[in-house]
Amino acid sequence: MVRLRPRFACWLAMVLLASSLSPAAASESSFPFGSELMLDATPMRGSKRIPMLQIDDSGAASIDLWCENVQAQATIGDGTITIAPGQVEPAQCPPDRVSRDQDLLAALAQVTSWRRSGDVIELLGATTLRFRLMTN
């Protein structure tokens, strides 16, 4: 009986340690619904704006492009994602930003899967789009 106490104490310590790490591992592998995701890119010349993506639990998505804003619908599964952009809200933009908006919107419409590593979320499709979770 005396020998079992150290083994039981060791087993209990391992169970407690494993249970304390589980929520962290689960949050790292889950999609960050409701969080702002910023495209991993530098601002275009003459602007400080960087595209942002936010997807709610319901799948309603808000996309702030280089110049314009778009509402979308997203379907997210275990490692899969589809984004169906809605109508672009017109804005007065220089032609280079309009072109970049169209390219980014087309790339978002072609994503088929996602993966997360810490605060980095990659949307994978014809083009890999890398976003950073805003933690401020």
Structural class: alpha+beta
Question: In CATH's first tier, which class of the largest domain applies?
Answer: Mainly Beta
- Overall pLDDT score: 85
> What sequence of helices (H) and strands (E) makes up the elements?
HEEEEEHEEE
Shape: elongated
Q: Count the strands?
A: 8
Percent of residues in beta strands? 25-35%
Q: Tally the helices: what do you get? A: 2
The biggest beta sheet is recorded as: 8 strands, antiparallel
Q: How many domains, in number, for the residues?
A: 2
Strand order of the largest sheet: 5-4-3-2-1-8-7-6
Low-confidence stretches: 10-26
Span of the ends, CA to CA = 53 Å
CATH architecture of the largest domain: Beta Barrel
Commentary on this structure:
This protein is of the alpha+beta class. It has 2 domains: 1-30; 32-133, Lipocalin (Beta Barrel), CATH 2.40.128.270. Helices cover 30% and strands 33% of the residues. It has 2 helices and 8 strands, in the order αβββββαβββ. The chain has an 8-stranded antiparallel β-sheet with strand order 5-4-3-2-1-8-7-6, with helices on one face. The longest helix has 26 residues, at 4-29. It is elongated, with a radius of gyration of 21 Å. It starts with a helix and ends with a strand.
